[in-house]
Design goal:
Layout: H1 24-48, H2 56-69, H3 79-112, H4 116-133, H5 142-162, H6 165-179
Helix pairs in contact: 1-3, 1-5, 2-3, 3-4, 4-5
């Protein structure tokens, strides 16, 4: 992949100097990183649409009825109102997850292009993601547990591949090229 030219007036690489070649470890990191939100979205969709028992609608409605029954003098919601609250919550959650997935992939693209700061962002966010995904491995549904393990493996691979020696050399070479060193 060739780097985009710098701003007008920026020094250009000497004639015959080739663009920095991206190693397969960076591509592997990128694709493992892309797999992470895909696996997570599949797991969320399976859980949301009730593939493993009562649908989210039914569980939410039952929980709302229990909570409202335990509150003296509380205003009761109609089933239509409870359903509306549930639907709005699901839309907000879906939009939030899609925005996070889009940001994650955007940072992966920057990392793939040789931006070291994006590699650091991927590392920090990936480590936090690992911590939040780990408890899902011990859930009651085996298929979701397996998807959580796959997601953990994809996140760990994303981070590990990003720091292999060829990856480190690539990020250093791209940084030197951008500084004008044309390594």
């Amino acid at each position: 992949m060739t780097d985009l030219p710098g701003p007008p007036g920026a020094p250009q690489p000497p004639e015959g100097s080739a663009a920095v070649a991206r190693p397969s470890s960076v591509d592997n990191s990128f694709w493992a990183g892309v797999a992470s939100p895909v696996i997570g979205l599949i797991a969320a969709a399976l859980e949301l649409f009730g593939a493993f028992g009562p649908s989210g609608d039914e569980a939410f409605m039952a929980q709302m009825r229990e909570q409202m029954a335990g509150q003296p003098g509380g205003q009761a919601f109609t089933p239509e109102q409870m359903e509306a609250v549930y639907r709005i919550g699901m839309v907000v959650a879906a939009v939030f997850l899609l925005v996070l997935a889009g940001l994650w992939i955007m940072f992966l693209l920057f990392m793939r292009g040789g931006r070291n700061w994006a590699r650091v962002v991927i590392t920090v966010v990936g480590a936090i993601w690992l911590l939040f995904t780990l408890p899902q491995v011990f859930g009651p549904v085996v298929v979701l547990d397996l998807l959580a393990v796959l997601q953990l493996a994809a996140i760990a691979a994303t981070i590990a591949f990003a720091y292999l020696t060829p990856s480190n050399q690539y990020f250093q070479a791209v940084a030197a090229r951008r500084r004008g060193g044309y390594a």
